[in-house]
Design goal:
This protein has 464 residues and is an alpha/beta fold. It contains 13 helices and 19 strands. The structure holds S-adenosylmethionine, iron/sulfur cluster (SF4) and FE3-S4 cluster.
């Protein structure tokens, strides 16, 4: 059955629902999402569609009639995990041919992956291309009509609006503002698997945030691969700082966070908006990737260490306590010891509150995959160890600045290690632990900070 001849989504939902209703018990779906928060947001839409079609959701692979893996391609180990998981499910699928096995997300858009899936995992029933969440009902419709392999690996430029969404939390919500990426950092697969940048209409974003706030959501995370590019493809001159200021006008008790923000496009207007908008969290994630200008150039990042530090200075002069976090890649092709030392120096200068660091992973199809690389894996791991120990030391020192202060915290869950304690995040994104009742989860509380530790601070509840 040709994809083009399939009925529209709403009709497919109706027909799949009628088909499933004939079963003696409600079929259950197991969904596992790998990768970044944008993929998690897609996962919430996939769960919404599955439920609209009549599936119940389960956390147990054994109980599921449909298994869906929403994949990530950013590093090789992310892909290895998916292939490993698909291998481990083979026996179950062979014993139970009625089980529907689906793969979607960023991995599916790569030709090499498609070939490997066809050759080594022919028991996968449905492969749904990247950005194509709203096509899931059509793929299930095709499967229901006997199509043994319902595969569509094209990278869709769809902007999924009005898709039923099953949110994981009742107080924290992710709201994508744009999809895709035009930056083509030389190490990164995302522009190839997610396609070109496209912004959602501001009215749709603002309406979604307003509805979330009215429904009691306390933290809204605006998402895009580079939110600073927001609006460049829209006709009305809208940009990200303006969008932030418009959202900030929505009344209510809530925080706005966003990620990611490419340093080349992080303007004074953006930083002024963060500082001036009451609902904006006092935290900026500004991924630097390397502290060496030579490496930044080979990464095609289009900023220098000096221009990056200028932006850090701008925000710290206005708000010395502002929290900054970053992403760093260790072992980019032919990164020299001097390049790595420059990264350590940058980390010492900026003194980040937190860092996500990754050993460079070669991605076929990217420019960096063709660059010569004489650095051994052992050397890369050793550098990673040095970077992590420097960051740990800085974070412990940084955390001391909170002791004696009262932080506004969104209570987020019970401590796994210490019974009776809750954990939450402050506006600065600091992890905070305090004694409290589980009924406080999802609420803002004030916590007086009494001690700082590695990776978190702790204290006691303080009245309003
Ligand atoms: N768009 C975001 C930005 O530019 O900051 C990043 C999105 S990417 C999903 C998250 C992080 O993964 C990047 O900031 C980078 O540090 C890391 N990353 C991407 N490609 C990588 C690769 N090939 N090897 C190692 N880390 C990689
Ligand atoms: Fe990848 Fe660079 Fe785009 Fe981020 S900005 S998604 S690192 S290409
Ligand atoms: Fe992975 Fe795709 Fe996100 S490659 S990091 S899931 S955009």
């Amino acid at each position: 059955m040709e994809h083009q001849t399939l009925p529209e989504t709403a009709e497919c939902i109706r027909q799949v629902r009628a088909w499933l209703a004939e079963r003696p018990a409600q079929p259950l779906a197991y969904l596992h999402t790998f990768g970044c928060q944008l993929n998690v947001a897609d996962g919430e839409k996939l769960a919404g569609l599955l439920q609209a079609m009549g599936f119940g959701m389960t956390d147990s692979v054994e109980d599921a009639s449909l298994i869906l893996y929403n994949t990530c391609a950013v590093r090789e180990n992310a892909e290895d995990r998916v292939f490993g998981t698909l291998g481990s499910i083979k026996k179950r699928k062979m014993e139970n041919p009625g089980l529907i096995l689906c793969v979607t997300g960023c991995m599916t858009a790569q030709q090499t992956v498609a070939e490997k899936l066809r050759a080594s995992y022919p028991y996968v029933d449905i492969v749904l291309g990247s950005n194509a969440v709203s096509a899931l009902p059509q793929m299930l419709y095709a499967h229901m009509h006997g199509q043994r392999h319902a595969w569509d690996i094209s990278v869709s430029s769809d902007i999924p609006e009005n898709v039923p969404t099953q949110r994981d939390s009742t107080y924290k919500a992710a709201v994508p503002v744009m999809y895709g990426c035009n930056n083509f950092c030389t190490y990164c697969i995302v522009p190839y698997v997610r396609g070109r940048e496209r912004s959602r209409q501001p009215a749709a974003i603002i309406a979604e945030v307003r509805s979330l706030v009215e429904n009691g959501y306390k933290e809204i995370m605006l998402l895009g691969q580079n939110v600073n590019s927001y609006g460049k493809d829209l006709a009305d001159g809208m940009d990200f700082p303006t969008l932030l200021r418009e959202i900030d006008k929505i009344e209510g008790e809530y925080w706005i966070r966003f990620m990611s923000s490419h340093p080349k496009d992080a303007t004074p207007e953006l930083m002024d908006a963060i500082l001036e908008c009451d609902h904006l969290a006092k935290h900026l994630h500004l991924p630097v990737q390397s502290g060496s200008n030579a490496i930044l150039q080979r990464m095609n990042r289009r900023y220098t260490v000096e221009s990056y530090l200028e932006k850090v200075r701008y925000i710290r002069e206005k708000a010395p306590d502002f929290s900054l976090t970053t992403d760093l890649i260790v072992g980019f092709p032919d990164e020299s010891e001097a390049d790595f030392q420059a990264t350590l120096e940058l980390v010492r200068t900026v003194r980040y509150d937190n860092m996500y660091s990754f050993i460079y992973s070669k991605r076929t199809g990217t420019k960096a995959a063709l660059m010569p690389d004489a650095i051994s894996e052992q050397e890369k791991s050793e550098r990673m160890g040095r970077l992590l120990s420097l960051q740990r030391k800085i974070a412990v020192e940084n955390n001391k600045r909170f002791v004696g202060r009262v932080l506004r915290v969104l209570a987020d869950g019970e401590s796994k290690k210490r019974p009776g304690m809750l954990t939450g995040r402050s506006s600065e994104n600091m992890l905070v632990e305090f004694p409290g009742e589980p009924s406080l989860i999802g609420q803002f509380v004030n916590v007086e900070i009494l001690a700082s530790h590695s990776g978190m601070v702790s204290g006691t509840l303080k009245g309003e």
